[in-house]
Amino acid sequence: ALLIIIIVAGFALCWKGYSMITDRMKGPRWDNLVPDMKQKTLDLLAKAKAAGLEVMFFEGWRSIKEEEADIAKGTSKLTDPYNTHHLWGSAVDIVFRDVAGFPSWPPANDPRWAQLQQIGESVGLSHPISWDKPHFELPDFSIAEVRSQYGYNYAAYLADQGVNVA
Length: 166
Fold this sequence. Notes:
With 166 residues, the protein is α+β, with helices and mostly antiparallel strands. Helices cover 47% and strands 10% of the residues. The protein has helices at 2-22, 28-31, 35-50, 64-73, 111-122, 143-150, 154-160, and strands at 55-59, 91-97, 103-104, 135-137.
């Protein structure tokens, strides 16, 4: 009986970890995207699937603390954490899934990236950063313009877009 409990508990923990990795469209990374970004992301995912690409939403909105941490770790090439579309709810990262359903980043020269970029552009997203293959953003969004009106108050901007930032 103890062995069965251990096996069931182990499976439950593995499943929870698996769903935390593969079901990322829950919580602030998804909820804090502006509505247009959400819709275009859904369109991108649907068209990519229809084209036979196994992709998933990996990242969207990121908090200022997450942005600062990425800069400190060197995983971001930015120096100003307020100068990213992710913070303002207008960017997502879409990655591929491996055979087990986990996130996967193929080599930069994998032709699927170019196919994904074309699909993103067909739904009205831009892919302006050549080295950041998973990154898509709203093309008509200007951080400079938004910051001229909202300064550093990304939460006020998002609220004005109908996003309730917790």
